[in-house]
Amino acid sequence: MNALLELHGAPTGNCIRAAIALEEAGLVYTVRLVDLSKGQQTGADHRSLNPAGKVPVLVERKGDGPAFVLTQSNAIIFYAAEKAPERLLPSAAGHRATVYERFFFFLTDVIAPGHSAFFLRGQGLHDGSARLVERMFSSIELAEQFVSADAYMAGSCFSIADIAAYSIVSSVEAGIPWDRLPKLRRWYERVGVRPSVARGFQAFSSR
Ligand SMILES: N[C@@H](CCC(=O)N[C@@H](CS)C(=O)NCC(=O)O)C(=O)O
């Protein structure tokens, strides 16, 4: 029996990353828009899927049995990658480890300080926020080395590392010193024209 996938979310970085992974894995899914401005993420319907009241949430339904639910964007990315062997995550141990290295570099050294800076800014802690933003941009500059010999972040093939990288780089594009980062710029253009990436970006906007 075919599984039906639903991606519940909104046009935010975490949701877009999950949508790009589903698109790149070639999976068919339905988008369920959660209107954050109306607080739908904290309503009873959404909390029955994710008690934390956050998006994205992936729901997989198979027949009459209980639905399988994932409530973390990165778990959704890995689940999509596992469903499409070799497309987003290579099986060879060494290559896979490099994909993990770059994927977690972007999560911990770029996305995490970026999200923390956003949170501090909301608290009025502008100094702390500015320092984290600086840290995020220095890490982005380090990524020039990853794409200096290869087309993608972790080698010659697109992977989940590119999904993590592209989603955050595109959100801070205007602040990146592109003149100093010619290889990163070429990588950014190469990934930006992928139809699956474009569809992932649009997943929550066209509804
Ligand atoms: N660690 C979670 C974070 C989820 C998260 O913070 N989602 C945000 C949108 S990107 C959210 O639901 N915000 C609404 C709220 O907190 O009310 C993940 O990666 O999925």
Automatic annotation (TrEMBL):
In terms of domain of life, where is this protein from?
A: Bacteria
| Pfam families assigned | GST_C_2, GST_N_2
Indicate the segments forming the GST C-terminal domain, all copies. 92-207
Q: Where is the GST N-terminal domain?
A: 2-88
What is this protein's record name? Glutathione S-transferase family protein
